[in-house]
Structure formats: C-alpha cells, structure tokens
Amino acid sequence: MIAIDWGVDMAQARSILGEDVPVSGNIDPTILFGTKEQIEQAVRDCIDRAGGPGKHLLNLGHGVMQGTPEEAVGWLVDECKRYRGKDAEES
User: Fold this and answer.
1) Which single residue of 25, 33, 42, 49 could bond 10 by disulfide (Cβ 3.0 to 4.6 Å)?
2) Residue 13, φ and ψ in degrees, nearest 5
3) Could you give the CA distance from residue 37 to residue 57 in angstroms, rounded to a whole number?
4) Could you read off the pLDDT of 4-43 as tens digits, one per residue?
C-alpha cells in the first residue's frame, strides 16, 4: 500500500502507479474545517480520482488536525460509507 499525501493529485498518482497498486489517501485534512457540503464533495472527488469505490483506502492525507470539529469527522465517515461512485449518482 502506498500512502498518497494530500498535496499529490490522486488521479495523477493512480495513472503513474497503475490500477493494480493499492493506494491510500489523500484528502486535505483542512477540509474538515469546511462545510458539510465541502467535506462530502472532497470525499466524492477523492474516491473518483482514485478509480472509484473499492479502488483505494480513503483517508486524510496527513491525519486529523488538532481542533478539528468532531462533527466534521462524522460527515467524512458518513459520506465514505454512502458514496457509490459517480456512475451510481448519474443513474
């Protein structure tokens, strides 16, 4: 498993590494200071850039920062569980 830092474009990393290399990451941890909608969009974008649901281990690119609202962590986790990919959203 290769951990992708939040400063690296996930789609570019996936392109370079190929779809068979397991990757994790890479949401910018500061997004957790944003709105619920911003957090949910960041989750969806990261999953899609990594190749879709089930193609990587989604997590923050550098861990949870001190002072992060607990509610925001819950929004991230809930969207990770809910999101089924852009193709499912369009159907």
Assistant:
1) 49
2) -60, -45
3) 21
4) 999 999 999 999 999 999 999 899 999 999 999 999 999 9
Compute the distance between CA of residue 29 and CA of residue 39 in angstroms, rounded to an integer.
Answer: 10
CA 56 vs CA 78, 89, 91: distances in Å: 17, 19, 23
Distance CA 12, CA 16 (A): 6
Three-state SS string across 21-68, please? CCEEEEECHHHHHCCHHHHHHHHHHHHHHCCCCCCCEEEECCCCCCCC
CA distance 45 to 51: 10
| 66, amino acid identity | Q
For residues 64 and 83, give the distance between their C-alpha atoms in angstroms, rounded to a whole number. Answer: 21
